[in-house]
Write a structure and sequence with these properties.
This protein has about 250 residues and is α+β, with helices and mostly antiparallel strands. The protein is built from nine helices and seven strands; from the N terminus they run αβαβααββααβαβαβα. It folds into two domains: about 60 residues; about 160 residues, OmpA-like domain (60s Ribosomal Protein L30, Chain: A, 2-Layer Sandwich), CATH 3.30.1330. α3 runs antiparallel to α6.
């Protein structure tokens, strides 16, 4: 019988090179992942595709377009993100949040900023109080940097009203309009994004059974709505022509 051929000890030379290459590729993709975040809608879309691939018949409708968001381009192409808007609000009105004059609620497709009547309007009035204007100036700065429509909603309690306004409906709508007019006064926001709505006493947060509860229900809400086409949002100021076409706003 012939002499058996012994295999050389250790890994082949090509395997060492291949292993180094795989390690470098792994580090590269980990680095890419660390610089990006995944939109929740992407997970839903991928999960739906896998279900179809494996024969699962359950149908799930995904309204959001899957999108990868990298933190480098986010500053240049702002997209609607509840977390981003919350951070902007916390930075801009931190003191008012601590004092309880403003509350923030985050939902799936919108962020609701609630301003108590303690800093917005005197009883039965639609004239903004002086202390509310610096706060609204800071909120304007947030609106200028995020996409989506902005709805300002006025709310009252169920107390009978007397004076200039015929009803709580009239008062709440006029208060919402006053806030919108103030936010648009510097012409830095496209007016087509804005809407003013009055709900009167029809949507209370709590029962109107005590003075404290009625005070909670008297509020103005600034609602940041999720845009339909966030990629089309442009943060550049309005051009001169569009400014001239806008109606002049009253100056307080």
């Amino acid at each position: 019988m012939g002499k058996k051929c012994e295999c050389p000890k250790g890994a082949p030379m090509w395997m060492v090179t291949f292993g180094d290459l795989m390690s470098l590729l792994l580090c590269f993709f980990v680095l890419l992942l660390s610089f990006s975040t995944t939109d929740p809608a992407m997970y839903k879309e991928v999960a739906g595709s896998l279900e179809k691939a494996f024969g699962v018949q359950k149908q799930e409708i995904t309204l959001d377009i899957p999108k990868g968001i990298d933190i480098v381009s986010r500053d240049f192409n702002p997209v609607f993100s509840v977390d981003v808007i919350l951070e902007k609000i916390k930075s801009a009105i931190k003191l008012e949040l601590i004092k309880g004059e403003i509350q923030v609620e985050a939902l799936k497709d919108r962020v609701i900023l609630r301003m108590n009547d303690e800093i917005t309007f005197d009883p039965g009035s639609d004239v903004l109080r002086a202390e509310s204007k610096p706060v609204l100036d800071r909120i304007r700065g947030i609106i200028e940097t995020v996409p989506g429509d902005i709805m300002v909603a006025g709310h009252t309690d169920d107390s009978p009203i007397s004076g200039v306004f015929k009803s709580n409906w009239h008062l709440s709508a006029s208060r919402a309009a006053s806030v919108v007019v103030f936010l648009l006064r510097k012409h830095s926001i496209d007016p087509t994004r804005m809407a003013a709505v009055g709900y009167g006493a029809s949507q209370p947060l709590v029962m109107n059974d005590t003075p404290e509860h009625r005070a909670r229900n008297r509020r103005v809400e600034i609602i940041f709505m999720q845009p339909r086409n966030p990629d089309n949002f442009d943060v550049r100021p309005l051009d001169e022509k569009s400014l001239l076409e806008q109606e002049p706003l009253p100056v307080d």
